[in-house]
Amino acid sequence: MYPSNLRYTKEHEWIKVEGNFGTVGITDFAQNELGDIVFVELPAVGRQLKSGESFGTVESVKAVSEIYSPISGEVAENNAKLNDAPETINKDPHGAGWLVKLRITNAAEVQGLMDAAAYQAFISEKKDH
Amino acid sequence: MSDRIKKARGHVSQSEGLIFEKSSPGKRGVELPPLDVPAADARSALGAHARDGVEGFPEVSEIEVIRHFTRLSTWNFAIDLGMYPLGSCTMKYNPRVNEHVARLEGIATEHPLQPAELSQGCLRILRQLEKILLEVTGMDAVTLQPSAGAQGELTGLLLIRAHLTAQGGPRKRVLIPDSAHGTNPATAVIAGYQVQNIKSDDKGEIDLAQLAQIVNDDVAALMVTNPNTLGIFEQNIAEAARILHGKGAQLYMDGANMNALAGIARPGDFGVDVMHMNLHKTFSTPHGGGGPGAGPVAMKKHLEPYMPLPVLAEKDARLYWDGNRPKSIGRVRAFYGNFGVLVRALAYALAYGHEMKQATQDAVLNANYIRKKLEDVYDLPYDLPSMHEVVFSDSRQKKNGVSTMDIAKRLIDYGFHPYTTAFPLIVPGALMIEPTESESREECDLFIDAMRAIAEEAATNPELVKSAPHSTRVGRLDEVTAARKPILRWKPTSKEQAAD
Amino acid sequence: MRYLPKSDNERRAMLEAIGAHSIEELFSTIPAQFRLKNPLPIPGPLSEMEIIDYFRARAAENSSGYTSFLGAGVYNHYRSVVTDTILLRGEFLTSYTPYQAEISQGTLQAIFEFQTLMCQLTGQEVANAGMWDGSTALTEAALMAERVTGRSRVLVARSVHPEYRQVLATYAKNSGLAIEEFGYAENGQADLAAIRGAVNDATAAVIVQSPNFFGVLEEVSAVAEIARSKGAVCVVGVSEAVSLGVVRPPAEADIVAMEGQSFGMAPSYGGPFAGVIAAREKYVRQMPGRLAGQTTDHEGRRGFVLTLATREQHIRREKATSNICTNQALCALAATVHLCLLGREGLREVAAQNLSKAQFALGELEKIPGVKRAFAAPFFNEFTVEFPRSVKMINADLLREKIIGPLPLGSYYPEQTKRGMVCVTETTSRGEIERLARAVKEILGRPV
Fold first, then answer.
1. What confidence tens digit (pLDDT) does each residue in C322-336 have?
2. How many domains does chain B have?
3. Rounded distance, CA C376 to CA C438, Å?
4. Which of the ends of chain C has fewer CB neighbours closer than 10 A, N or C?
């Protein structure tokens, strides 16, 4: 269910590491909790982020969620297409619904993130509570 | 449609376009007496500032205005039509005599900056209301200035801030229960504080042990609603006040639920330092589709020096506005507050007088009656006694996929306005019901009947509930597109989008 | 009690159904020491007749019989009786905030029409459903500018309404917003050179009011240009909205904060009124207050809903654009009905009458020796006059003639003690204006 080539955070973000870059988005669990997404607020290119730092928001009609950076890095690109089509996050949260691309400054941080199995277990536990 | 629906009221299905769509050049709804002085030439008087009329402004006749707004009004639910069981909104009857007196010549006509000697009538009205609110709240001083509850909350927090600053420093944090109304944290931030959320205990009340642990020299205040948003009286409130005062912190009370206390108990007696009232709730001033309201703030003596400007004062049997208060937090709005709303609140208070307690008793009676008659079909997450409102949850109905929002929409088909859904946040799938004292036994029984019928539908025919309402002019509206691609005004090109 | 729809029998039966023996039992969770033993010592209960008598008696203690020339943020315009015909309909008066859209389409469509009218009046792209009043609208506009620019310094003209500036100061103190005031030029307009000197990269907004407190029209496009040259936004307050019938709107502003009282709301000793914030579309997500948006239902019927609610306190809580919840909806409805009645031609005519009467009034006053116009810049229906004597003393004599005279500026601007503001509207008759001039002339003719 959750792509094995991604890593996951407890705040329901995912990251796909390719060389020095990491693409970040929110998971299917998160988009489902939020409902139809209507607006996304993304950071400017060039902004430096620390691991765990809030860098934007994703909004549905009745809720707002902050997005936290899974790792430290610099914003190299943000997904401007989401301005006109925020629903992409609902349709393809792990692919076309990506939020930002970061230039990774500390590769070691990725090791601390959950893999697909661990994340699946994490959210199953949440549902049972 | 269920044949158990006894009082459904069909919504008028007539279409009515926007006023701009009815407009045509040359029509007007008001004519003025002829000008009795020489006409000034706009170009010479104003030069480049001159304007040739407002582009796109409607042009319609008087009858078209009357018809347009009358038709629109028929699409609204209203207290005059039936019950609004909205929790913590206190949708009680809006007495018409209040409207009459607010419009009297000599009341509606007064300019705020006219001399005090020509405003004694207005000032006496305010003074009388102040005295009544002080009796109701058990406090020492009151300001009638804040325009609404949220502004009252801000005023209250600023008073606390000024007091603490005078004692050494404003401190950093305000404690807010997780059951609080959204205006509480929003206000705390505007007042320059950080918000620290505190969890309610498993009975739904303030957790005293947690409070004792958290309160220190960094905490400015605890903002509490009492009864809380579950409709439950915070039995430990006096002890909470002691804990706070022990560390020099203050207790702020959100007075939204005063309809459970007026004439029965006074917040000033159980340790509250400062509180606001919502006159558009407890004191019957009309909601009017969203306002205006008024949020007077009552306080203990130690906060009086900081009251917002100007302060109503008396000297030699004359009332006047005193702007000479060096410690004041300053002005919170121009002039003196929503005077017209204050007039209505006074009219309400005079109608009840010392019998105000009776309204409070009837409010609590109605809520408990409804609770008793529904507690076998809806889940009651906290079972401490309810006061003027009761909070159920949708957990039983959720098993069939029916949520509180669905039940609320189906209630519309039965002729009622929905109760408050999804608040307070500590009850997932909440149904927050406050009937107020204005509902007769008959109306309460009809409401109970409707809610029981819907519970049955949720079990046997959930789709009917999930796709409600069925009897309104428009169905559930697309809020997603409205948020993604907001259309917030009419534009001439949208004439093509004809009304259905 | 006439507001309580219960008989004692019904109360008894309901208590029985609950299983309680008395109503007191239902209050048992309140600790005994806090339960009041006696009824509240407050006046009443009064019958409807007595309530009306009470307020009539208060009305007689106010200013009936006096002619007023006061403006300064509250204007005595004609209110059609049709407005109350609509406002007093129970479906508008006694309805709630339109959170349940299906049964609030009347309110929501009226709000949508209000928002449209406000955009048309102000020349802005988007307007909200209203704020509490002009003073808090201006304050919220400053806070909005802070959010939009990320800067925390605001420049405000001294010619902005003094009470509005006081409110701004109260809010600014606690939000880390630094307020700096700049002066006015000899002609009564905001001093552009002063703005140029003060504005910098830390400025969030430059705030002016037009017509300003002195009644004078500001050069909004010049102010906006200076503001934008340093990346600040231009905020314009409007306290006399009728001016927009004949005066160019502040379309160059980024944010407009308007007081709507002039449209169908009685002076009512200062409230309730209705503020509104209008701005450029790109700022809409930073705008406070409710917004009604157009949409469709599942069968394609047009309808309206409250939208972009994630800005507001009930969702965003501590990160909300404002704490505002209850607004001034019914007052905004009054403005909507009033403006629809006036329409394009009616508003233009009302504004033109105001302009003409003010020109006439100034002319009559200037005929009096020693009395002169204080500011050379153009004005609408309110203007500042310089007298050879203290305005307070002149007013004391005018009161004896049952005239409430010019608002003395000295209490707000210590440098202007011999100046007062005169306001006339379409409701001021020629006879009243001439009587004012005669009385002032006569008073000034007496030995001091």
1. 888 888 999 999 999
2. 2
3. 24
4. C
Q: Which partners does chain A have (≥3 C-beta pairs < 8 Å)?
A: B, C
> How buried is residue C318: exposed, middle or buried, by Cβ count under 10 Å (0-12/13-18/19+)?
buried
Contacts of A38 in chain B (CB under 8 A): 480, 483-484
CB pairs under 8 A between A and B: 14
Q: Which of chain A's residues have a Cβ under 8 Å away from the Cβ of C316?
A: 64
Cα–Cα distance, C220 to C205 (Å, whole number):
13
Which tokens sit at C379?
A: 């004005």
Q: Which two tokens stand for residue C254?
A: 């980024």
The answer to whether residues B195 and B219 touch, using CB atoms and an 8 Å cutoff, is no
Q: Which subunits sit against B, judged by 3+ Cβ pairs under 8 A?
A: A, C
Sorted by sequence, the CB contacts under 8 Å of residue C225 that are 6+ apart come out as C252
Q: Give the contacts of C272 (CB within 8 A, at least 6 positions apart).
A: B147, B291, B292, B338, B339, B340, B341, C133, C265, C328, C331
The amino acid that residue B224 corresponds to is V
Tell me, yes or no, whether B454 and B379 share the same domain: yes
Q: How far is CA B260 from CA B156, B208, B294, C177, C255, in A?
A: 21, 23, 19, 39, 42
Nearest to C73 by CA among C243, C233, C287, C247: C243
Residues C159 and C174 in one domain: yes
Please state, in angstroms and rounded to a whole number, the distance separating the CA atoms of residues A8 and A37. Answer: 21
Do C382 and C315 have their domain in common? Answer: no
Which range among B139-153, B197-211, C28-42 shows the weakest confidence by mean pLDDT? Answer: B197-211
Write the CATH number for B111. 3.40.640.10
Residue B468, domain extent: 356-480
In chain B, residues 410-439 whose CB comes closer than 8 Å to chain A: 422
Q: Strands of C24-152 (E only): list them.
A: 67-68, 126-127
C62 token code pair = 């106010």
Q: For A65, name the nearest residue in chain C, comparing CA atoms only.
A: C316
Is A86 in contact with B484 (Cβ distance < 8 A)?
A: yes
Cβ pair B289:C60 closer than 8 A:
no
pLDDT digits (tens, 9 = 90+) for C93-145: 999 999 999 999 999 999 999 999 999 999 999 999 999 999 999 999 999 99
**This prediction's pTM:** 0.95
Tokens of B37: 């002085």
On average, the pLDDT of chain C sits at 96
User: Rounded to a whole number, what is the distance in Å from the CA of A81 to chain C's nearest CA?
Assistant: 17
B397 and B260 belong to one structural domain: no
Domain boundaries, position C431: 67-78+344-445
Structure tokens at A65: 């969620």
Give pLDDT tens digits for B91-114. 999 999 999 999 999 999 999 999
Same domain assignment for residues C300 and C202:
yes
Distance CA B356, CA B347 (A): 13
In chain A the domains, ranked by start, together with CATH numbers, are 7-128 (2.40.50.100)
> Is residue C2 included in any domain, yes or no?
no
Encode pLDDT of B387-405 as tens digits: 999 999 999 999 999 999 9
Q: Do A59 and C309 touch (CB under 8 A)?
A: no
* H-run or E-run covering C275: strand C275-279
